[in-house]
Amino acid sequence: MAMMQGVQKNTLYVGGLAEEVNESILHAAFIPFGDIKDVKTPLDQATQKHRSFGFVTFLERDDAASAMDNMDGAELYGRVLTVNYALPERIKGGEQGWAAQPIWADADTWFERQQQEEEMRRIEAENRAAMQAAEDLHRKQVAEQREGEKEEETETRDDAMAQAEAEVLQQNNH
C-alpha cells in the first residue's frame, strides 16, 4: 500500500470541533460517506475533554475523499470544520504532530509527572524531618554542653573555695 508523502488517505483529521461533539456524534456526521473503521477524539488529560479535533478512519479511501470534499468547511454544532487527510505523526504522536499522540501517551507522562512530584514531595518532607532532627540534636548537645560547663564551673569554684579556705586555715594556724 503506497503512501503518498506519508499521508494516510483513509484517515481524516477533523479540526474545529465544538465541545459538545463526542466520538459518536463525529461518527454520525461522517457515516453517510461510507463505512467507518475508527473514530478518535484525543482527550486533554487536565480537563478530560477533547482538544477540539478528532480523527475519522474510513475503510475505503474513496469514502474518505468524498467525506473530506463534503465536510471541509461544513458546520457541526455551529463550528466550521477543517477536514484534511491525517498525517501519520499526528496520529502516532511524532515530534511534528501538535495534534495528537495517542490518548494513552499523555496518560503515561501525566502519571509519571504525578509520581515524580509525589516523590519530590516525599523527599522534601524527609529532608525537612532530617534537618529538624539534626537541629534538635544540635540544640540538645549545646544544652548538655552548657550544663556540663556549669557543673565544671561549679566544681572548679568549689575547689578554688576549698583551696582558699585551706590556705586561710593554714595561715591562721601558723
TrEMBL record:
SUPFAM superfamilies: RNA-binding domain, RBD. Keywords: RNA-binding. InterPro entries: Nucleotide-bd_a/b_plait_sf (IPR012677), PPIE_RRM (IPR034168), RBD_domain_sf (IPR035979), RRM_dom (IPR000504). Residues 10-88 form the RRM domain. Residues 129-174 are annotated as: Disordered. This is RRM domain-containing protein. It comes from the Eukaryota. It comes from Flemingia macrophylla.
